[in-house]
Design a protein that fits this description.
Blueprint: H1 2-5, H2 26-40, E1 45-49, H3 56-66, E2 71-76, H4 83-93, H5 103-119, E3 123-128, H6 136-145, E4 157-162, H7 164-170, H8 176-181, E5 182-187, H9 193-206, H10 217-227, H11 231-247, H12 255-264, H13 267-281, H14 306-316, E6 321-322, E7 325-326, H15 329-332, E8 346-348, H16 358-368, E9 377-379, E10 385-386, E11 389-390, H17 401-410
Parallel strand pairs: 1-4, 1-5, 2-3, 3-4
Antiparallel strand pairs: 6-7, 8-9, 10-11
Helix pairs in contact: 2-3, 4-5, 10-11, 10-12, 11-12, 14-17
Length: about 425
């Protein structure tokens, strides 16, 4: 825990709406002043609108603390309820036993309580938090509560607090009567960079911190930027930054620490991982997706692979005709005769009985290539000499029958064994 490390008495960036830690920036001071003024003016209905995390609930607690000796108050935050349940929550918060009461009986009980408070010279204030989630029929029942009044004053002041969706709800035609009764619309706006600095200092000082330079100037600028001036975001960033800095034994928190914390709090990255998981669960393995062209291994060209080698090996078997081209029989000076089949790995030279020159050809090959143990079996890719030169895909055309066969066939392939 970093409290001892940084000599703090309590958690400065907690998640509970502690009024002691509330920083009243310009927008919060204005909102609080409007709530107090509307209460003292007995305006009936007030509405407080704020984005999530703006400290709305903390401000409401501060407001209720201010009213502690001035009014009877009830606070309701259960927004997912029917009209009967809503009245029940109000009476329970007031400490009233509602056992066996139906809805009319509960309304009568509340009316008697309001009259008693008026006779005692106190106001009654009902604060409803997260009101954007209330159903229309519940909002309509709340509107009817404002009918509790005397000829000269309202017996109940109601504060509806919620997120921007509440403003959208109140704008609907079905809630026109409720909207007309709201006399003040109060807003909370995000902090600017100066307020973010003051907010951090206020929280640290309230928690007992003495080191005003714990967060560097650069770190504070990054916090203001990435938090968008929303207090809850500031709390999350600062808490994680202090935890990380404590683990690293850092006396100050700089931009590097904030950078790492912001990356860890990036929900967009988790969303991308979630998409990948969903694809895998749906039977589409991301690892088996078709690779991009730039990521694919380069394949050898069709004409530069094993096919030309097979063709040249076939030529050496004195094949009369191949897909690469037709050999001139006059150049061979030989009678017709089929050659044996040739596979890609070897080229057996089996002379035809009707070819009187084959023995001379093999002897000539043996003389030019003494390293050939058996000229009848020439492996694909093996070098050999013809007419005193090394054959390389038809680069040299010799006058003897073997050279003519090799060069005539290999010239069209332009590939060496």
């Amino acid at each position: 825990m970093f409290l001892d490390y940084y000599k703090l008495a309590e958690q400065p960036f907690g998640v509970t709406p502690d009024p002691r830690l509330l920083y009243l920036g310009p927008t919060h001071r204005e909102a609080l002043a409007s709530l107090v003024y509307g209460t003292e003016s007995n305006r009936g209905f007030l509405a407080l609108i704020a984005e999530p995390g703006m400290g709305k609930t903390s401000l409401l607690y501060h407001y209720l603390t201010y009213l502690q000796d001035k009014a009877r108050t009830a606070f309701v935050f259960r927004a997912d309820c029917e009209p009967r349940e809503f009245i029940r929550y109000v009476l329970l918060d007031l400490g009233i036993d509602i056992s066996g009461m139906d809805l009319p009986t509960m309304h009568d009980k509340l009316n008697r309580l309001l009259i008693g408070e008026m006779q005692a010279g106190r106001r009654f204030v009902l604060v409803i938090d997260e009101a954007q989630s209330l159903e229309d029929k519940t909002l309509e029942s709340i509107r009817l509560l404002s009918n509790f009044e005397s000829p000269w004053m309202k017996l109940i002041l109601i504060v509806l607090a919620g997120q921007p969706q509440l403003a959208n709800r109140l704008s609907s035609p079905s809630l026109a009567q409720l909207r007309q009764r709201i006399s003040m619309l109060i807003r909370l706006e995000p902090f600017d960079a100066e307020d973010v600095n003051a907010y951090i200092d206020h929280r640290l000082w309230t928690a007992g911190g003495k080191n005003s330079s714990l967060f560097t100037v650069g770190a504070r600028k990054m916090i203001a930027e990435h938090s968008q001036g929303i207090p809850r975001n500031i709390n999350n960033i600062c808490f994680n930054a202090m935890s990380l800095a404590c683990a690293l034994k850092r006396e100050t928190i700089d931009r590097d620490i904030i950078n790492e914390v912001v990356a860890d709090l990036d929900f967009g990255r988790l969303t991308e991982k979630h998409v990948v998981v969903n694809r895998t669960e749906s039977g589409v393995d991301p690892k088996r997706q078709a690779p991009r062209l730039s990521d694919s291994p380069k394949r050898k060209s069709f004409a530069g692979g094993w096919i030309p080698r097979l063709a040249i090996a076939g030529m050496l078997s004195l094949t009369v005709a191949t897909p690469a081209g037709q050999v001139n029989r006059n150049e061979l000076g030989a009678a017709e005769g089929p050659a044996n089949a040739v596979g890609p790995d070897s080229a057996p030279l089996v002379p035809s009985k009707s070819a009187s020159y084959n023995g001379d050809v093999l002897e000539k090959l043996r003389g030019l290539n003494p390293w050939l143990s058996d000229p009848n079996q020439i492996q694909s890719g093996q070098e050999f000499r013809s007419s005193g030169t090394t054959s390389r895909g038809g680069e040299q055309r010799a006058a003897d029958p073997v050279s003519n066969v090799v060069s005539a066939k290999a010239k069209n392939n332009e590939h060496a064994l």
